[in-house]
Amino acid sequence: MPNHTPDHTPAQPSHEASEPVRRIELHSADGTRLVATDRGDGPPVLIVHGGSSSASSWEPVAAQLSRRFRVLCLERRGYGVSDPAGPGHSIAAETGDVLALAASAGAPVLLVGHSSGGIVALETALASPRTCAGMLLYEPPVAVDRPLGGTALRRARAALDRGDPDRAMAIHLQQIVGMPRRSVALMRLVPPVRQMMRTYAAAQIADDEAIEALGVGLDRYAGLEVPALLLGGDRSPRHLRDRLDALAGVLPRVHATATLPGQSHMANLSAPGEVAEIIERFADSVLR
């Protein structure tokens, strides 16, 4: 059972919030200090954000959900204001983080996992299925039949180790995520975006490596009896939709597979209302 010592203190409210935002500080099983936001009352929804971002990327969705649910947004280790990931980072460590936060909810949670946060959500449900009333997985990059990054990931790590986070992130975005070279080049021309990429480079490459360390294949999830809703965008890179389809073929209790028209991998920012409505409907079916 993870060690958790939550300390509730007021946090700065978002202008979009329909409910006051509270700040939680707690400790994972290995002593890592974690920070999360907590808003609303009702059945608990726990959101695990994706890589190269922070919990704030889900604030617009959380604001809408908090009108009917208690919404916990975890700031993953290595991102935002939680402690750094540290050497030997693993998905198992992050699973402990989610379980520590879920324990503070006092009831089974609906886990919402985005991108690599979806991998963390899957592994959390696998480790402690009774903690999860359901899981909504938004394009988790599961390794279906080959490693997530392979040689590209090793090149990204080498670039990071020689002090070139820009190159490491370019490799990640082009050769692992599958973004067009031109799109990545344009991102690097925008100073705030380039700085954000540099800031998150170390955490993102460690994130990729932790996923790759899980190995290849989805058989581990074949006995996961937790209701799941799989979410994707019809403009996301094809490999992400293929991975979602493969996961749908393995999980035994897929409630539905939902596709967001006109959206890609970041609909939590580009269409937060649509994402929140899908989560609400699924929550109503599992959080009783």
Description of the structure:
The chain is α/β, with parallel strands linked by helices. The protein is built from ten helices and nine strands. It has helices spanning 59-65, 91-105, 116-127, 150-161, 165-177, 181-188, 191-212, 238-248, 267-270, 272-286, and strands at 7-10, 21-27, 33-39, 44-48, 70-75, 109-114, 132-138, 228-233, 254-260. It has a nine-stranded mixed β-sheet, with helices on both faces. 48% of the residues are buried. Mean pLDDT is 93; it is low at 1-17.
Structural class category: alpha/beta
**Reading side by side through the largest sheet, how are the strands ordered?**
1-2-3-5-4-6-7-8-9
Alpha carbon gap, first and last residue: 24 Å
The major beta sheet can be summarized as: 9 strands, mixed
Give the C-alpha Rg: 18 Å
Q: How is the topology of this model organized?
A:
Layout: E1 7-10, E2 21-27, E3 33-39, E4 44-48, H1 59-65, E5 70-75, H2 91-105, E6 109-114, H3 116-127, E7 132-138, H4 150-161, H5 165-177, H6 181-188, H7 191-212, E8 228-233, H8 238-248, E9 254-260, H9 267-270, H10 272-286
Parallel strand pairs: 4-5, 4-6, 6-7, 7-8, 8-9
Antiparallel strand pairs: 1-2, 2-3, 3-5
Helix pairs in contact: 1-10, 2-3, 4-5, 4-7, 5-6, 5-7
